[in-house]
Amino acid sequence: MRLLITTPTSVVVDQRDVVAIRAEDESGSFGVLQGHADFLTALTVSVVSWHGAAPVQQFCAVRRGVLSVSAGNEVAIATRAAIVSDDLAQLERVILAQFREDLEAERTARTESLRLQMQAIRQIVRYLRPERQGIFGAG
Amino acid sequence: MNADAAENQSRPPDGMAEAARKEEDRRYRWRTEGELSVVRFVGQIGILGWIIVAPTLLGLFVGRWLDNTFGTGIFWSAALLVVGVMLGFWSGWRWMNRQ
Questions:
Q1: Nearest CA to CA, how far is B19 from chain A (Å)?
Q2: pTM for this entry
Q3: Predicted ipTM?
């Protein structure tokens, strides 16, 4: 069975030998095995877990999303954000670290764009100053 | 701004971290406690049954004795039976919540 977890910007998981998947929607937790009927549901903010041929559980925290099962052997999850970990005990910490990193990046981007704007305005003001020679004035 | 608010601000607002922790708690409980065994399940039914039945019977017997003593028909039996049932269900309810 193929499991595909995607966010708007990247493919987070694309695994082909998946045996069982667990996910959670409004009505609670459910499992998907090979040969499941076609199925479409909206996930909550929750943890999706699955394992391949080896019984090693893997986990992915998702920020809502849409899960679809097609042809009984492909499960696709489209979500806003997905964070993968093979250790559930670490997952919370990974999520928090990721969140703080994103927050920091956003703040930096905001101050940078603000500075860019200020510089552009300053440039325009300098350009439009009356004592400066106009573009059409030739000296 | 105090430390608590700062801590809250640096957590995802939609509870993604909480979801991860909840999932971990569930799995931990499954590993440590597992499913209730059948014997214990049957035992619980028995205990709950007795908790409800015992006060009812007690009320009925005391009521019968009072009725016999004072010759009041079924007045005390009925009243104490109802009291016993109420007491039984109440303590059963409390016991279930405690489990």
A1: 5
A2: 0.61
A3: 0.70
